[in-house]
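Key result, reporting period 2: structure in, sequence out.
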């Protein structure tokens, strides 16, 4: 597996200067899963890019380059009891915001990745309810903040379909300093304005820490094993005609809005002091 070397890009300086507090969402730490009465992890839209690739594997990179990221889930019920034997799926975009398995990917919609399965896979939770994946830090695409999708299955039934969100300050640093992630335009959507992230709330904020030559994202997935929720499943790309009318027509959840001729509409990115305030929320006192 080949990953981008991040040892010389000043990560420790980032965590100090951009507010390390944003890298730890207390509600998402697996160590806290023993507390009773935990809130269930919020359900979100599945998005249009889910595929069941039927590959149980820890390493989902398929040799794809990127900043190494381990994703570690602890799956438990609301009482904090670990739930073994559940299947956890994850999927996310690559460093340039492109999903495997679909056509018309990337800023210019020219990327064709039908038949590809990178950055997708499944694991079954162990006796302690944990499931872990080796992947790369995801990129971004127009209209969405940085996110990773996940589903939890009990048998054939999906008891959780959701997304979790990574710290904006860390994402900003990687996207501007690591060549593989750099783009011709500025990321347009942050956690603070992403509609899906705002509706989901704190239960899907991943805690991130730095380990040797990689980042580690952890999240407790608190589920009701008896649940049978309705999955919000938007049409897949190409399964519906492009929106007609004025530019800025809203697309399916999890997809960039499309304008005249099916071209993606890019939201206006925050700049200057407003962007800094959004990237590094003020610390609370008391």
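The corresponding designed sequence is given below.
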């Amino acid at each position: 597996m080949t990953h981008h070397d991040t040892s010389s890009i000043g990560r420790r300086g980032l965590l100090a200067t951009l507010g390390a507090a944003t890298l730890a969402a207390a509600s998402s730490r697996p160590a806290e899963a023993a507390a009773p009465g935990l809130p269930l992890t919020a359900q979100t839209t599945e998005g249009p890019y889910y595929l069941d690739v039927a590959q149980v594997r820890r390493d989902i990179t398929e040799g794809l380059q990127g900043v190494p990221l381990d994703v570690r889930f602890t799956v438990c019920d609301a009482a904090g009891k670990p739930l073994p034997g559940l299947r956890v799926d994850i999927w996310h975009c690559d460093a340039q915001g492109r999903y495997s398995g679909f056509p018309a990917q990337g800023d210019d919609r020219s990327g064709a990745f039908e038949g590809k399965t990178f950055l997708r896979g499944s694991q079954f939770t162990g006796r302690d309810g944990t499931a872990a994946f080796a992947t790369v830090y995801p990129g971004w695409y127009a209209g969405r903040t940085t996110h990773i999708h996940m589903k939890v299955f009990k048998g054939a039934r999906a008891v959780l379909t959701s997304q979790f969100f990574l710290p904006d300050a860390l994402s900003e640093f990687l996207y501007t300093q690591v060549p593989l992630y750099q783009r011709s335009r500025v990321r347009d959507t942050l956690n603070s304005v992403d509609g899906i992230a705002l509706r989901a709330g704190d239960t899907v904020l991943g805690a991130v820490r730095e380990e040797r030559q990689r980042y580690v994202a952890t999240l407790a997935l608190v589920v009701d094993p008896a649940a049978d929720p309705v999955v919000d499943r938007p049409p897949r790309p190409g399964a519906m005609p492009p929106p007609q009318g004025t530019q800025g027509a809203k697309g399916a959840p999890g997809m960039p809005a499309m304008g005249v001729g099916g071209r993606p509409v890019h939201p206006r990115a925050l700049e200057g002091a407003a962007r800094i305030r959004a990237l590094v929320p003020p610390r609370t006192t008391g």
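Residues 39 and 226 are 15 Å apart (CA to CA). The chain has one domain: 11-230. This case is discussed further under Risks and Mitigation.
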